[in-house]
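Researcher: Good morning. I'm working through a list of sequences from a screen, and I'd like to move beyond sequence-only analysis. For each chain I'm collecting a predicted structure so we can compare shapes side by side. This is the next one on the list. No need for commentary yet; just the structure.
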Amino acid sequence: MLNNIWEFLVPRFKDAAPRVVFEIGAHIGTDTVTLAALPGATVHAFEPDPRNNLPTLPNVVFNRAAIGARDGEAEFTPSAKRGEWDWTCSGSLRRPKEHLRSWPTVTFGDPIRVQVVTLDTYCREHGIDVIDFVWADVQGAEADMIRGGLETLKRTRYLYTEFSWKELYEGQVNLDGILALLPGWRVVQVFPSPEDYGDVLLENTEMVGQ
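Model: Good morning. Structure tokens for this chain:
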């Protein structure tokens, strides 16, 4: 069993063969830096919250956009505070629901308009045929990401995403709902938290080994 996702990734990126990594919901780039340090990786990073900025790295393509179910603009509900601290980690294309009860110290601001692009459109416009690894932290919008990337995800090897058994955000699907949207994918490992949520590593059985 893996202790964390890096135990899985590092051995698979041990040489400098070109690999395509998507980080969807990059926040301030903490994980972006580590992903970009993997040998051979080009990282396409997406972050819609205008308060969050990433470090400039030569192998990171930064996109001020959310990944969603359709192209255009959409309402994004930003998180505002966690207690007395500014909090920019929990914004979403979906409005908070159970999140308000599970984390009552986290508050949200008024919705803002952000740019949204689907995985399918982005990959078509950028000539990306295969994605080796997707790291997704989309705060309840997992189904939107998948529905807008059904063709792209057929050509994606691994997906690592947050999930929740609660409807933390309106319309959020749980892990069973995620798997129902991804025929041909299987769970490699679930990384649970003490709460009713966690992270899951999935692999595309039709792509792994190719």
